[in-house]
Amino acid sequence: MNQAYLFNNGKNYQSYKMLGSRPDVSAEGERGYRFAVWAPRAAHVSVVGDFNGWDPEIHTMAAYGTTGIWHVFIPDAIEYQRYKYAIRTPEGRVLLKADPYARHAETRPNTASILYDAEDDYDWQDADFRANRQPIEESAPLNIYEIHLGSWRRYADGNTFSYRDIAPQLASYVKEMGYNAVEIMPIMEHPLDASWGYQISGYFAPTSRYGKPSDLKFLIDTLHQHGIKVILDWVPGHFPRDDFGLANFDGKPLYEYADSIRSDQPNWGTLVFDFSLAEVRSFLLSNAWYWLDEFNVDGLRVDAVSSIVYLNFGREYSASARNVNGGYENLEAISFIQELNTLVRENFPYAIMAAEESSTFPNVTKAAAEGGLGFSHKWNMGWMNDTLQYMTSDYYARGQFHDKITFSMMYSFSERFILPFSHDEVVHGKKSLLGRMPGDYWRQFASLRTCYMYQMSFPGSKLNFMGNEFAPFIEWRYYEELEWFLLQYPNHKGMFDFVRNLNHIYLEYPALWEVEDSWDGFEWIASDDRENSIFAYARYAEERRQTVIAVLNMTPASYKHYRLNVPHPGRYKLLLNSDDSAYQGSSYAGLEQGHTIFWAKPEKEKRQSLEAKMMDLASPLEQEVGDDSGGSGFFIEMPLPPLAGLYLLYEGEEENK
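Request: output the structure for the sequence above.
Response:
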């Protein structure tokens, strides 16, 4: 079927093979580049560039019927020459526009597109990894390291690493640290560093800040060879107003809504894509396909989904457009997202499609055919906000915020969630995660370690922003590398070692990730100890006797004899202790992770004399009742360190292990 026809009807999912610039041979056998651009209201279009002295009168493009597409073949044009489209409007204005489908672009502040031959530009070596990718519905741990390539590491002179230079060290680091996926903040071409890549001017061009498209493929390939998934941050909701870009592309709104109420995105000063326009849908759907197919990435994290599905996002209700039903949902945008996710699920069944969706929009991860948006995952922004509000509160006041922790279980199985501590939580005066923790240095580090143990044991996949693993004091700064020098200090090195061990434990034990969608994988053990700010719960694998119990003491109080109901009789090994001296903890009561064993006792042996109670006034007496145990009839008695998390691994009833 005619590719232009499909494009005009919103069904060309590989329109980048028709539009843009690509090497070709003319009928006369001349080698050069063929150009095609969609500019339906232009009076005249030509290609200007290094091959013609930027003269708009030399290489005039011809209109392709009534499709709105203009095309021309230019002999002797060669790879890496710069070019733009000179678009003359009916009013006589001439606009110089970068190619919306360019595969390569100049590095800012320059804005021209660059000719690039993407055919066989890279020889992939990750066949084994790709062959073993499983459908996204299958249970598997997902522990994501979010990274901004320009500020993870830099050379001593402040220059950024290239895609190729950063590849081996990033892959080795991520593997060593126990992450099995990276999420790369937007690496599509963008004009402003301070936008962090979220205001894209070249949707099909990897930013040239770090090299060529083939160099990015090398980075992705290297990560794959280390068993690491690659997720790209993707921004289909809005784009910048720069004159050289998509804004008013042929003299009037084209990629954006014509109605300024719908097109203006006041939160970011950008323009909103017109999701009702078939050609815009072809453009965006093709772009998603392009990154998944041409670059072999394992998924997309879709930015700012709330701004896409709601007409009133970031706007006063009185100044917002409404849909045909009188509501504030953007119906054509919702339809676009459903088509996008259906397309991806059918053609790339292994692909992660994660929505950064901050509202209560329903059924984000329900299949589009069943009325949902069709994403594979949703960022759990409610969990993140509640958790950080709780952890920021002073220790004496945490009992007042107890429900911030327990409430998350009211909706935890309503979507397939990712639990994020992302870049957005360590910028704009919010402080670093460590800086949010109250108290002196020791308490800050101890509290953050416990926070991470909560994140890694709570239902949902995991995401942490780079640097969180060694707890910097200051916020993230996009213009310089992370403060790696902090690793020479014991507290930061202790946090680094702790996070590495925590990550590997998460990946190793199915109880922490195998059952995420129902109460079959989670059971409260202590949920109502508000007075002492202690939480305990069991995580179960599909084989229920594969059990890990998380115990979280959220205050600096310590307990000599804490009584904890447990689901099984027998032996429990202390798998991880955030208070261990290896992490600069207090090593309270000599608890040794990997060695300390607790034996569950039957309920009938649960005795505590008045004298014992008087000797340990801090022990929460209500724990003797054990109502949260579900009537299992077994308990253990254990010391509980201050501001600490403990993981207990059930090992069975045998005496000798």
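The first helix runs from residue 3 to 8.
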